[in-house]
Amino acid sequence: MAAARTAARLATRLLERPWLWAFAAAFLVWLATIIFTKGQGGGEILSAALAFGTFSVIVGIGQMYVITLGPGNVDLSIPATMTFAGAASMKIMATQDSMIVVGLLIALACGAAIGVFNYGLIRLMRIPPIIATLSSSFVFQSAAIAYGRGIKIKPPPSLADFTTARIAGFPILAICTVILALVMTVVLHKTVYGRSVIAIGQNARAAKLSGIAVDFTRFVTYVMCATLAGLCGFVLSGFSGGASLNMGAEFLLASIAVVVIGGTSVAGGFANIPGLWGAALFMFLLVTMLNTFGLGAGIRLVMTGLIIITVITVAGGKSTDR
Amino acid sequence: MSEADRSIVRLDGVEKHFGAVRALTGVDLSVAPGECLGLVGHNGAGKSTLMNVLAGIFGPDQGSITVRGVDSTAGYTVAAAKQQGVRCVFQELSLCPNLTVAENARVMHPALKGFGWRRRAAELIARKLDEVFPGHGIASREIVGDLSIAKRQMVEIARAFTVTEAPADLVILDEPTSSLDSVVAEQLLAFVRHHVAAGGACILISHLLGEVLSTADRIVVLRDGAVVDVRPAADFTRDSLVSAMGSVAEGGVADGDGFTSKRRGGSPKVRARPAGRTTGPELVAHAGEIVGLAGLAGHGQTDMLIQLHSARRKASASLQVDGPVSLVAGDRQTDGIFPLWSIAGNITIRSIRHMLHHALIDADAEQEMARRWQQRIGIRTPDVNNNILSLSGGNQQKALFARALASDAEIVLMDDPMRGVDVGTKQEVYGIIRDEAANGRTFVWYTTEMDELKHCDHVYVFRDGGIVADLARDEMTEEKLLHSSFEAA
Questions:
Q1: Reported confidence tier of residue A313, pLDDT bands at 50, 70, 90
Q2: Within a domain: residue A306?
Q3: How confident is the model at residue B210 (pLDDT cuts 50, 70, 90)?
């Protein structure tokens, strides 16, 4: 009797954790892949998924905080910010190892500045976030083109080594990002700032009347999101052998997809970070699986879309119903 | 009734319930052609519900609606009401702000179709505006959103009187003059008389008793969802109307006898003048005082509370708030509850800033605060970690009280917080408020319930965004309150 009750409680508590679905989906897709390859390359695929998933998670954390602020909040300038920060930092470092710290700071500063610009448009000019961040992304994408002149700018060798290094098959960058995710989980649930973000997403008016600094919290969130995009641009440039002008392109969709698939409520007010990892792995493994099956590009895209819709319907429906 | 057979609309024993709230408890009413019926009553007396029934928006739970002698209770919809010539001018205006005046007129008249409908609609509304409000200065091609609130109200009223296919036999006007200045209001009332003289009918709902007394032929007084008095307007005086509206039963809550002013020396905790006012009475609240904000709904009380709530950051000469402030929302869903959080999370959100341990929120302190206030205020739940929505409305409201009272606030603002709270819970909360006031907290309490004002040391009566009276408890009577709420414009 007691055991049954404990089991039931455990089951409900697990169901209350929507990130579980993303991990389950990632695992199933991985399983399907290695069954198809008869057990070959399972470890390598996972290692690659961790390496590539890292970048989605970094920008996904920022996007998740923004989306959690409530309906209408989204940052579409992430790709442009990554490109701009990547190009600026690579050019300033000029492949010298001694400049890596300066380059990192430049990348973060570019991100922060774009975040301030974004929130300025949103708050001072009263432009809806979706339009504000989209228009600022045109500005900074163009700035990156003017600045980088379309050439791929190479990273310093030490940065390239660091971003691609592995310990026992685990990418170092992925380990760092897991730590980042843990820190941001604590920030979300245990700090006044994190609580404020969740409160605003549920009921902005009630949040204001409960004494929460709504404008300041929103400002910090947009700046943080853009800063993380700057960081992502920096490490991705190191990882992929340089800053290119379309390097951020796929992260517009990815940053939003990992948030949604990860079980964060699109309506705001409910967020979870573990799900970002599950979703990032799932997205990579899904494409790998379809590639392994040898499907054509068209079928692959259709399948990707359908499977994402399925996962969101199964996993995401519950948290928004409440 | 002799006019029953020739009445346009007759209600018999109409009841309407919303959950446990009995908005209408058996209303009989009839309107005949050539008659203007005045409808008065205090907030929550059921006026708006009654109007919605007449307009076909709410079907009655009990009773019958008879239109021109035919029982039409079943199938009395908005369209049917309109077909029968019943028109409504709502207090919350119903024009589309993105359309022009002419286009808004067309919305009500499907008959205006084919080429040139816009021109015909413009002519229709312009003619009626000229008739009702001579010299109105409104062009039919203007976008409604660009008009002032008074002009929008004029368009809304004129539109209700326009006729294409369906007649406009009975026009119901809900607070039609609330945004109109006295000259335009006079024009409207004169037109209403003219409309009635020509054989039409009107129902005039207004808080301005003077205009009801002067315009209506008959006056119906509503109280607590029932008709308590019907007489020809000539048989009423201002005073008899006020006493018919007010609740006669005297509650023995707290009488003025034991009143001792807490205003001896010391500077007040709160001193404020309503926004946009540079003269006139100020709101003052001292430590340990319970100060009531009274008057009709929507006359600036909530604005005053919001102003006080944000005053710490924007203090000015006309606004001084000395000490931390918290607010108990009355509109729970919009202003209070965080629906995805537990009861504990909802209680502690106002106080987490003072629960930090190495920059992180101390979970034990949170649990402790939630449990202590669950006990203190009697929130009925087995576990404070349950979702807030698992509570009944009254208990959700208690959680909001706990949020405000558990905080460091020295000044607690309450925005009509007892809406939809049952009697037992109210009494418990009143006790806690009195205890907390005795401990030195200051309460500023907006309420629409007369009985609650008896808990207050001072009551400020609001009208049109300003304070019109300041009554200490020993000089406060229901009659005085009503008189200052309805003071002639």
A1: confident
A2: no
A3: confident
Out of A191, A195, A269, the one facing B349 most closely (by C-beta) is A195
CA distance B302 to chain A (A): 12
Distance from CA of B410 to the nearest CA of A (A): 14
Measure in Å the smallest separation between the Cα of A26 and chain B Cα atoms.
Answer: 27
Query: CA B292, B293, B295, B296: dihedral to nearest 10 degrees?
Result: -120
Q: Give pLDDT tens digits for A172-195.
A: 999 999 999 999 999 999 999 999
In a domain, A172, yes or no: yes
Contact: A205, B334; criterion CB under 8 Å:
yes
A177-186, A272-281, B167-176: least confident range: B167-176
CA distance linking residue B423 with residue B373, whole number of Å: 20
Name beta bridge partners: B31: B9
Query: Domain range for residue A63?
Result: 57-272
Cβ distance B419 to B450 under 8 Å? no
> Which of A196, A209, A272, A321 best probes binding to B when mutated, by most B CB atoms within 10 angstroms?
A209
Contacts of A270 in chain B (CB under 8 A): 340
Contact pairs from chain A to chain B, CB under 8 Å: 59
CA separation for the pair A105, A98 (Å, rounded): 13
B223: three-class secondary structure by DSSP? strand
Angle made by CA atoms B448, B451, B454, in degrees to the nearest 5: 110
User: Per the domain annotation, does A92 fall within a domain?
Assistant: yes
Residue B315: predicted pLDDT: 63
Q: Do A270 and B336 touch (CB under 8 A)?
A: no
Residues from chain B contacting residue A202 (CB–CB below 8 Å): 338-341
Percent of chain A clearing pLDDT 70 (strictly above): 92
Number of domains in chain A: 1
Q: How far is CA A165 from CA A48, A90, A144, B239, B332, in A?
A: 12, 19, 28, 89, 54
Q: Nearest chain A Cα to B350, which residue?
A: A210
Give which of A186, A189, A210 to mutate to test B binding, by max B Cβ within 10 Å.
Answer: A210
Note whether residue A16 is domain-resident. no
What pLDDT score does B26 carry? 87
Can you give the three-state secondary structure of A183-244, one letter per residue? HHHHHHHHCHHHHHHHHHHHCHHHHHHCCCCHHHHHHHHHHHHHHHHHHHHHHHHHHCCCEC
Q: Closest residue of A to B305, CA-based?
A: A209
- The residue type at B71: D
Residue B42 has pLDDT above 80, yes or no: no
Q: How far apart are CA B426 and CA B420, in angstroms?
A: 10
Q: Which of B457, B459, B455, B454 is nearest to B469 (CA)?
A: B459
- B interface toward A at CB cutoff 8 Å? 309, 326-327, 329, 334-341, 349-350, 352-353, 356, 359-361, 387, 403, 407
pLDDT tens-digit series, residues B293-330: 988 777 788 889 988 998 866 667 778 888 899 999 88
Higher per-residue confidence, B232 vs A321: B232
Q: Say what the pLDDT of residue B217 is.
A: 93
Report the DSSP pairing between strands B283-285 and B270-272.
antiparallel
Q: The tokens 């083109």 sit on which residue?
A: A145
Cα separations in angstroms, B342 against A170, B214, B357: 38, 55, 22
Report CB contact under 8 Å: A210, B349: yes
Burial of residue B234, with CB atoms counted within 10 A of its CB: 0-12 exposed, 13-18 middle, 19 or more buried: exposed
**CA B236, B242, B248: angle at the middle one, nearest 5?**
115
CB contact under 8 A, A195 and B360: no
